[in-house]
Amino acid sequence: MPLKEFYDQQVNWSPPFEDGLERATVVVPRDYSDPDGPKLTIALARLKATDPAKRRGVLLAVNGGPGGDGGDGLGLVKRLGARVRTAYDLIGFDPRGYGESTKLYSEVTIPKAPFDSRPPDSLFEQLAEDMRLRELGCQKAGGELRPHITTRNTARDMDVIRGVLGEEKISFVGYAYGTYVGAVYGTMFPENLDRTVLDSCINPQWTWREQFVTQAEAVYRNVELWAKWTADRNGHFHLGTTADDVIAEIEKVVAKLDDQEQVHLRTLLDGAVGTRATDRAQWDSLGYLIGDLGTALDDGNLDKARTLIVGQGTWRPQDQEGDLRVGVLEAITLETYWPQDLEVYYADVRRHRAKHPYGYGVLRAQPWVGAFRTFESLEPPTKLAQPGYPKGLVVQADGDPMDRYEGGVVLAELLGHPLVVIEDSGDHEVYGLAGNEVLDALVDDYLVDGVLPEQDRVTVPGHVQRPDIPKD
């Protein structure tokens, strides 16, 4: 079956569901070098352009992940704004491996190491063993499909979608891992790409290992900014007159929790500090929290401290239900190099535990399944390149806690795109999703009317304001 037959297949859209989306599926080869081999199904969703007279094509969107972690898949297009809906048929899809597309499964393995934001050296071997078993679970359930769940194959699937829809070109909006998907598509199929927006960028010059490890540093930048703001208002918060003083107050609370063997509470507190520091609107509540915790623990009132911390509602991993789960994250992140020497991971955990303990970034430095990989990639990652790549737009918040600011800078320079920096913002995935009207208007001007900024770098303000508390 030649590839042309995949491009020429007929797509049959369902009537609109209650959410307004039409649904369909397309068939793609599991292995594009063997189109006569096994096939995969890709699930699509469509919102037709609201003004057919102004329609200029189709726009695909991808966010979250890799593997749908935090991503909306088919439903992402519903979150884009009214203006872009007038000009495009918005196409959502679940990339190969998850959602309503053909799934890549992994066996569920339950970690034995406790959830600890600052794991001691005594836990290192168990953390590594948990990851070894996780990789085995991925291989047992995923088997022959795993090597074919790649960014390059997702880009190829996107081009099949383009062909099936009868379009010469597609436009694209990508968030987080979706920025890399879009950049790979534009490198592999530059003649088929129209307008592209890459928001909250994966750094294309980093391995997945480097991408993981730098999250701790990205969160800590926000903590430092919060600490400086709080120190400037010591008369209000009473946590010290310098950023170092304020962070020292956090560590005093941490030490008191550790003294009482409250690892669970200390871990939740680290999560709360990282989460609240990235959200400018919650800077005052974080200051109050640290002060109230210090008072409660000084008074020996652990119950009150527990109530304060648990009430923050911070994220923690949930136990998986059933025997199988989606294993795309573990497949995609093995596209790049992972050290086999466990001491490399242990050294990074020690470093971040000492310097960047807030949020859960320290855990990103621990061994990953890549240290125990059971398959080899069938082709190298894409080397992103400019030739023929149409100029688009890169969007990056300066305080993005997940994909560091530098990723946006590097990707914009590499592709020759203007960079839009959202200043004083801890947002991640912004255009059309976060409520930043200034940014949304700028991006809409490009997607709808083709208007790009004249400068290589422009700034827009973050839409989340710091609390209105004057300096001392």
Structure in words:
The structure is a single chain. It is built from 16 helices and 11 strands. The chain has helices at 3-7, 82-87, 124-142, 151-164, 177-188, 208-231, 234-237, 243-259, 263-278, 283-298, 302-310, 328-332, 342-355, 361-364, 405-415, 437-449; strands at residues 22-29, 39-47, 57-62, 88-94, 105-107, 170-176, 193-201, 324-326, 393-397, 419-423, 457-461. The strands form 2 sheets. It has a 9-stranded mixed β-sheet, with helices on both faces. It has 2 domains: 3-103 and 149-204 and 384-461, Rossmann fold, CATH 3.40.50; 106-143 and 208-378, no CATH class. By secondary structure, the protein is an alpha/beta fold. The longest helix is centred in the middle third of the chain and has 24 residues, at 208-231. Helices cover 40% and strands 14% of the residues. α2 (82-87) links the parallel β3 (57-62) and β4. The termini are far apart.
Q: What is the fourth-level CATH superfamily of the largest domain? A: Alpha/Beta hydrolase fold, catalytic domain
Q: What order do the strands of the largest sheet run in, or round the barrel if closed? A: 1-2-4-3-6-7-9-10-11
End-to-end Cα distance, whole Å, is: 73 Å
The fold-level CATH name of the largest domain is: Rossmann fold
Radius of gyration: 23 Å
Number of strands: 11
Order of helices and strands: HEEEHEEHHEHEHHHHHHEHHHEHEHE
Count of structural domains = 2
Helix percent reads 40-55%
Sheet-strand content, in percent, reads 5-15%
- Classification by helices and strands: alpha/beta
Shape descriptor: globular
Poorly predicted ranges (pLDDT <50, ≥5 residues)? none
Biggest sheet overview: 9 strands, mixed
Average of the residue pLDDT scores: 95
What CATH architecture of the largest domain would you give?
3-Layer(aba) Sandwich
> So how many helices?
16
Give the CATH class of the largest domain. Alpha Beta
